[in-house]
Amino acid sequence: MKKKTIREWVRPRRAVPALLLSGAMVATLGAGASATTNPPITTLNRTVIADIPDTYITSDGVTRRVGSVNGLYIVGDSDAYVLKSDHSGTDQTGWATFSHINDFNTSSAVKADYMVRLKGGTEPYSLGHANGLAYYRTPGTDYLEVGSFYVPTLEAPGEPQVAQINNQGEITKLFKARKGTSNKKIASIAYRGDGTWIVGTANESIPDPNDSNLIRRPYYIATIAGDYFELGNKFFVPTTKTFNLGQDIAYNPAKDQILIPVWDGKNTVGTATGLKNRIIFATLGTVTNNKVYTPVRWADLTVPASAATLFEFEGIALDSNGKLFVASNIVHPDGVTYIDRIHKLTGQ
Question: What is the pTM of this model?
Answer without folding.
Answer: 0.88
